[in-house]
Amino acid sequence: MRIGIIGAGFIGRAVARLAVQAGHSAMISNSRGPQSLVGVGADLGCEVGSVAEAAKFGDVVAVAIPFAQIRAIPLAPLAGKIVLDANNYYPDRDGRIAALDNRETTTSEIVASHFARSRIVKAFNAILARDLERGGQPAPSGKPRALPIAGDDPAAKAMAAGLLKDFGFDRVDAGPLAESRRFERAKPAYCIPLDREGLVAALAAAQRDVEAPRGSWRR
């Protein structure tokens, strides 16, 4: 599979590394251009390109950038593509977004509205980069760590689930994009290492207006 990656931060690099290790082809990109990523590409064993090139390259495209920058991504190269939305809303970084603060929508529903011709799956947002880099390490229970996904397109979700399997993780389908709220920032499933049973329970426990203490997931 060809995986385009928009965003060369810690999550984007971790996805690239795992993709290459699993036998996939990957191209990583950032807003500064491929010339800024030559060393990164050599380290990860992947190709580098512009944002538009990475979008065109991928059968699947992972987007892992600050949420406020989503609208800077070109739409046309992502038309018809499966887009893995790894973004999270941090008001201190992204600025206040009333629809999210008021729980009227989710980050991925905003992404889906913007990329209306793409097939959006929420994935890779609910794990710390250092944990993602290690691949499918066991949860504290000793069972495989599980990661959540959500989306409105069953075939796109199946593709995302297969990729997580290739990376060594168990998977839990949280439902449609609207239910991705259950593993957004500061929810019980956010960045906590859980096996399948624990993740199912954490997703069920999420309350729309209740957030975990700031930074409690960075343990």
Would you write up a description of this structure?
The protein is of the alpha/beta class. It has one domain (2-205): NAD(P)-binding Rossmann-like Domain (Rossmann fold, 3-Layer(aba) Sandwich). The protein has 9 helices and 8 strands. An 8-stranded mixed beta sheet has the order 3-2-1-4-5-6-7-8, with helices on both faces.
Name the descriptors.
about 220 residues; alpha/beta; Rossmann fold; 8-stranded mixed beta sheet; 9 helices; 8 strands; about 15% strand; globular
Give the CATH level 1 class: Alpha Beta
Order of helices and strands: EHEHEHEEHHHEHEHEH
CATH superfamily: NAD(P)-binding Rossmann-like Domain
Question: Which outline best applies?
Answer: globular
> Oligomer, anyone?
single chain
Distance between the termini: 33 Å
Largest sheet composition: 8 strands, mixed
Strand content: 15-25%
